[in-house]
């Protein structure tokens, strides 16, 4: 049995929604809406709902209000692939991000950043 044959009878994959915890959900949602050029759609309970541009295929983002601050390194983070990393880093810093460092692995390079509450993400390019 090939991979194609083994998956042809499966239902479609689940939709992907990213959820980010934040003490100040509204403030962090404002940062990520501007950073990703998403629309800030609604506040639903403890969630701020951000949606990508129509037709982009990008996942929605929920910012969930939580009572505790971030402790330690993220177990998962977002990589934003950009054409001009220095310009994008400068734009994000103006929005409240912090530049944490630079990295490289073979031909892949990245700038590690943090949002206003310290959640790490990378600007990546090759």
Summary, kept brief:
The protein has 126 residues and is α/β, with parallel strands linked by helices.
Question: Would you write up a description of this structure?
Answer:
The chain has 126 residues and is of the alpha/beta class. It folds into 2 domains: 15-67, 2-Layer Sandwich (Signal recognition particle alu RNA binding heterodimer, srp9/1); 77-126, Signal recognition particle alu RNA binding heterodimer, srp9/1 (2-Layer Sandwich), CATH 3.30.720. Helix content is 22%, strand content 38%. The protein is built from 3 helices and 8 strands. The strands form 2 sheets. Strands 1-4-3-2 form a 4-stranded mixed sheet, covered by helices on one side. A hairpin with a 2-residue loop joins strand 6 (98-105) and strand 7 (108-114). The longest helix has 12 residues, at 25-36. The chain starts with a helix and ends with a strand. The model has no long low-confidence stretch (mean pLDDT 90).
Name the features.
single chain, 126 residues, four-stranded mixed β-sheet, Signal recognition particle alu RNA binding heterodimer, srp9/1
């Amino acid at each position: 049995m090939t991979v194609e044959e083994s998956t042809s009878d499966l239902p479609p994959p689940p939709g992907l929604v990213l959820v980010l915890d934040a003490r100040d959900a509204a403030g962090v949602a404002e940062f990520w809406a501007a950073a990703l050029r998403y629309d800030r759609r609604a506040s639903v309970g403890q969630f701020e709902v951000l949606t990508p541009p129509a037709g982009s295929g990008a996942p929605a983002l929920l910012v969930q209000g939580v009572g505790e601050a971030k402790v330690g390194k993220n177990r998962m983070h977002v990589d934003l692939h950009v054409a001009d990393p220095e310009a994008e880093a400068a734009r994000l810093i103006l929005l409240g991000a912090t530049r944490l460092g630079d990295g490289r692995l073979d031909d892949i390079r990245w700038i590690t950043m943090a949002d206003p509450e310290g959640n790490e993400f990378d600007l990546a390019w090759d």
